[in-house]
Known about the structure:
- The protein contains 2 helices and 3 strands, in the order βββαα.
- The protein is an alpha+beta fold.
- It has a 3-stranded antiparallel sheet.
- The model has no long low-confidence stretch (mean pLDDT 92).
Amino acid sequence: MAWWYNHRTGEVEEGPQSLGSDRDGPFDSRADAERAPQIAAERAQAWRDEEEGEESPN
């Protein structure tokens, strides 16, 4: 079963229950879905770090 995080309500859903624009996933476990905001923040930081590395001269 796949898990989803509804970022509009802050709730975890078992299977897609809400609009796709309101949810992130799928996640393999409920625990991962509960961490969705943290996972998204970590990925965004990694992308920023990567972009900064590409912009700086060697």
